[in-house]
Amino acid sequence: MGIMGIVESSKSTKYASAEVSLGKFAGCADMKTRSYLSDNDAVFISNSPKFIKETTQNPKPSLYAYTLNELKSLLSPSFRAKQVYHWLYHRYENNIAAMDNISKAMQEHLQSHFIISQIEPVRIEKSSDGSKKYLFQTKDGHTFESVLIQMKSKELDESGEIVKGEKWTMCLSSQIGCKVGCAFCFTAKGGFVRNLNAGEIVEQVVMMKRDSNIAPNKRVNIVYMGMGEPLHNLANVSQAIKILAELDGLSISARRQTISTSGIAPKIKELGELNLGVQLAISLHAVSDELRSKLMPINKAYNIAEVLNEVRAFPVDSRKRVMFEYLMIKGVNDDIKAAKKLLALLNGIKAKVNLILFNPHEGSEFQRPLMEDVKAFADFLVKKGLLCTIRESKGIDISAACGQLREKIKRENGEITQKSKKAKV
């Protein structure tokens, strides 16, 4: 399948066929048989059923879904791709007509074959600690969440590192819903809808930067810890990682991007073979297969030993460690006996442990642990030589745990009945 690349000339405008594989971008299909809504139409009718139906059936690929080289292969002369990148990622522009250093012919071509925005914020909530929770809506009418966490000097970031100066961590979603079904996870209550495409993942970063006036050169860390299992959507997530790392774009290097996985062992191996340079985090949360299988059903397919074997083979940046996320739940996995088993499991792995306090939500049977138990757990690991941090909870007052804001809005809109409020765990 192909799309037309435009060739600019001082005398005339010619068109040349430029072949590109669009299959890896979800929602992209044969562009020769499409009729589209204009960008202006999208602005005015984005909430109407007609818009949702037509844009779902007749999508155009987003400019956010391409690396710079891919865009160069579609636009001629190729320097136009750099201009577009500058508008997208340095000016945060989402209107092709506003790109005033690009010829009208090229603007018309871009408008005919591409869109920019695929998502829009329908609710933004700001926490007293400066964190922001975003609820985004896609063009096919589904919602998902992202979180912007502002870190101040000497605080610990989401990777457990001490912040020097001010920086931001963006927690991105990779799917609408999730298939993994962890017992403690709020997202699991809503089931799985679909994967986010690469453009939808990248646009989360652009939207949050634009909304919070974060300059393109300001340091940002990316963690794929929002809704969904990133390794169940590896094609789109890996594409997004490459796009975000583009030096002419947002320039968020792969080593400042962390993929958090529930432990899909074959996909951990596949991720390592891609040699992206991305950081790896494992959602462990238990030290026995029996408990982990109860908390995380995926453990029945890939047990702790299988996951750790793939972690040992994973190419880790010499300056980094594999992060093991351990969600502490009162009376479940928060005692010193569990700490001793965790120490034994991670023996020989260049690891750091990030202790996370359970974020309580309506309908859950689990409780937040006592801070004295968390500190005792951490102190034991540190004294034994294992790097361990306690993640500072952010956004508790804005439903910042995955899926909470989405559920809250559905309830406000009457989409959730009283009967369905309580989760079955």
Strand content: 15-25%
Radius of gyration: 22 Å
Principal-axes geometry comes out as globular
Sheet of most strands: 10 strands, mixed
Enumerate how many helices there are, as a single number. Answer: 13
CATH homologous superfamily of the largest domain?
A: Aldolase class I
Number of domains: 2
Function: Specifically methylates position 2 of adenine 2503 in 23S rRNA and position 2 of adenine 37 in tRNAs.
Binding site for [4Fe-4S] cluster: 178, 182, 185
Protein name: Probable dual-specificity RNA methyltransferase RlmN
Binding site for S-adenosyl-L-methionine: 228-229, 260, 283-285, 359
Protein model, in words:
- There is one protein chain.
- This protein has helices at about 40-45, 50-55, 70-75, 80-90, 105-115, 200-210, 235-245, 265-275, 290-295, 305-315, 335-345, 370-385, 405-410, and strands spanning about 1-5, 15-20, 120-125, 130-140, 145-150, 165-170, 175, 190-195, 220-225, 255-260, 280-285, 320-330, 350-355, 385-390.
- Residues about 1-60 and about 415-425 have low confidence and may be disordered.
- It contains 13 helices and 14 strands.
- It is α/β, with parallel strands linked by helices.
- The N and C termini lie far apart (about 45 Å).
